[in-house]
Amino acid sequence: MSFENYPVTEKLVQPAVPQPQNKWRNYLIAGLVIALLGSWGYIIWLKSKTEQTFQQKELVITNTSSQRDQLQKELEDATRLYDMIKTSSANMMHSKDSTISKRDREIAEKRNRIQQLLSKVGATEQELAEAKGLIASLHTDIAGYKSQVETLKGEKLVLTQEKNTVIKERDKVQKDYDSVTTVIKEKEEVIDIATTLHASNFSILGIDETKSGKEKKTSTAKKVDKLRITFDIDENRVAQSGTKNIFVCITGPDGKPLAAEALGSGKFSTRNGEEKHYTQKIDINYTQGQRQPVTIDWKQNINFEKGDYKIEVYNNGFKIGEGISNLKKGWLFG
What we know:
Strand order of the largest sheet: 2-1-3-8
Strand content: 15-25%
Radius of gyration: 65 Å
Distance between the termini: 236 Å
Helix content: 40-55%
Number of strands: 10
Largest sheet: 4 strands, antiparallel
């Protein structure tokens, strides 16, 4: 057996590279790269998440603000409607119905609570939801308020119509009553005038009273001690029997009334409202439908002057007769 020596190649004689050390280095580099990429990925994800959260918060804030503005507008609209209803019914609500007053208080309290919720800077969705529910309730209350006011207006209209009807009926009754009263008054006045007595057959004499007590007729003024006035009250079938007042007015030659309060004189009013002095007042017991003579003596506390003496007789405010007597100057001593 023969042996041959072959040349050994260079590859076979080169020393081996320590492979395990290079391998771990690569692993370390790869790990660092992966960690770096992971960190970048986490940072990118975190930034994206942060931006998303911020956008969501901005959206929530925007939505909340928009919702609050919308609720505020609804509150203002409801308030405007409520105020308009109150204004339109102000004249009718002088003395408020107790139910209306209670509803007023409830609406006012609800409005205040809603405004408090909407005025909060950091109002939560729960608080806004409460405000929204209260606004819906407020609309219901205002609708009920309006309905009740309209009901009261209708009742007032009915009452006004009934009142106007009653007033018309009252006015008609009053008018009829006034007409009847006027007719009755006119008839009473006619009857009253018809019952007024009438005087006639006047006789006016001067009387001279002698020392012996005898009476003599005289027309000489200085001899007259008294005037004797006689007249008849004519028949009157309308005047009732009973006491009648007769006023006798004597006017002297100077045009002045003869009147002395101490002798029973006074004043009375005529039918035309004139105040007149009477010389003497007498009451007669008149009998219906009969003629009745009346005699009056007038004796005054001063001398009678010459001239015409006018006698007027009044009953029931009317002049019912008159007469004139003339007293002359004496023959001697002028």
